[in-house]
Model the fold of this input.
Amino acid sequence: GAVVSQHPSWVICKSGTSVKIECRSLDFQATTMFWYRQFPKQSLMLMATSNEGSKATYEQGVEKDKFLINHASLTLSTLTVTSAHPEDSSFYICSARDPVIGGANTGELFFGEGSRLTVL
Amino acid sequence: GQQLNQSPQSMFIQEGEDVSMNCTSSSIFNTWLWYKQDPGEGPVLLIALYKAGELTSNGRLTAQFGITRKDSFLNISASIPSDVGIYFCAGSSRAAGNKLTFGGGTRVLVKP
Done:
């Protein structure tokens, strides 16, 4: 399957600081990437859809000024958690659809390894 | 919005047993996917289903896309210790922009 990679895999930061997480599609180009958040023992919740060259679309209840998304190229999307607080501690996972494997009209997604954020 | 009910929430397996889990939806999906997630890692795609009634296998795994397009099941035959983990169903529909909706997960554990 297609390879999606995230960096860093884990990060610890102080409250009030900002943290950037990168998501890269390694062997394909992705015009759209998706950012999910997962709390312990819970399912994945979609936060936002990252669109290359345009603004991200956010799910209801997700603050766009809090979670800044930039999709500057066809292989890279970044999520910046601004002014992080302990309640932002979570497992953040990105995903992308490979148009060659999955096709533009299917829902098949490949996920990164995830980034665990701990805010002290 | 779309909701997926996945059951069971957790189950214990003994090596060699068959395992079954299923998902039901309040609305129709065009695609059903089954993922496995190990601790501290992202989900890994196991099986993708695209047509109502489709039955697909991947090694010891078998999944089916329900005829009504509102349900799917995953079977694991002759389970082995490495089958332990969390299994998620996920569905998408063109009407919802192909966004994935995830079930709550089935946590597969080994019998003590």
In short: The CA atoms of residues 4 and 25 of chain B lie 5 Å apart. The first strand of chain B starts at residue 4 and ends at 7.
